[in-house]
Amino acid sequence: MGMWSIGAGALGAAALALLLANTDVFLSKPQKAALEYLQDIDLKTLEMEPRTFKAKELWEKSGAVIMAVRRPGCFLCREEAADLSSLKPKLDELGVPLYAVVKEHIRTEVKDFQPYFKGEIFLDEKKKFYGPQRRKMMFMGFIRLGVWYNFFRAWNGGFSGNLEGEGFILGGVFVVGSGKQGILLEHREKEFGDKVNLLSVLEAAKKIKPQTSEKK
């Protein structure tokens, strides 16, 4: 009876752990980013001679949709990049640019990511777009049913990837208005493959009011 009791207890504990891992109990809560925080972030171009500039240049005149990529080689990130890129014709009609930021530039990862993403990509070396409070999902992600659903969805969609680079710091998507209009949408990845709602992105982009040059 003793061994059976221990075994039953272990199974019960494992079942409880699995249940809790599939709730939001242990997920770190995202901290909303203020416009003042985002606009002061230093970004770099990915040219041979990179230029460093403040992030506010991305949205100051026309607003912007910005994807903070968790890992360019991740097939889930490539899937979301392709989804966002499907909005490019409509964003172009609105005059709203589409950008992405990555936290590292290794080997050909960004170049290999580019076919999935129809916008310019910049380097955020200090990982500020992943803050103010960086959130990580470690190995708990692999026992979450939602993550496995996302895996199969991307696989069935024909997406593939690799394991190059840091992939535990969660990413997100921002829609930022022009000038001081502010952050119109902020989606923080809850788990691997937690994609932004495309309709929400488009609706937020429609609210952007382009800055007009003042006549002197």
Automatic annotation (TrEMBL):
Involved in redox regulation of the cell. Acts as an antioxidant. Inhibits TNFSF11-induced NFKB1 and JUN activation and osteoclast differentiation. May affect bone resorption and help to maintain bone mass. Acts as a negative regulator of macrophage-mediated inflammation by inhibiting macrophage production of inflammatory cytokines, probably through suppression of the MAPK signaling pathway. Belongs to the peroxiredoxin-like PRXL2 family. PRXL2A subfamily. This is Peroxiredoxin-like 2A. It is found in: Cytoplasm. Pfam families: AhpC-TSA_2. PANTHER family: PEROXIREDOXIN-LIKE 2A, PTHR28630. One of its GO terms (cellular component) is cytoplasm. GO terms for molecular function: antioxidant activity. It comes from Daubentonia madagascariensis. Coiled coil: none annotated. Keywords: Antioxidant, Cytoplasm, Redox-active center. It comes from the Eukaryota.
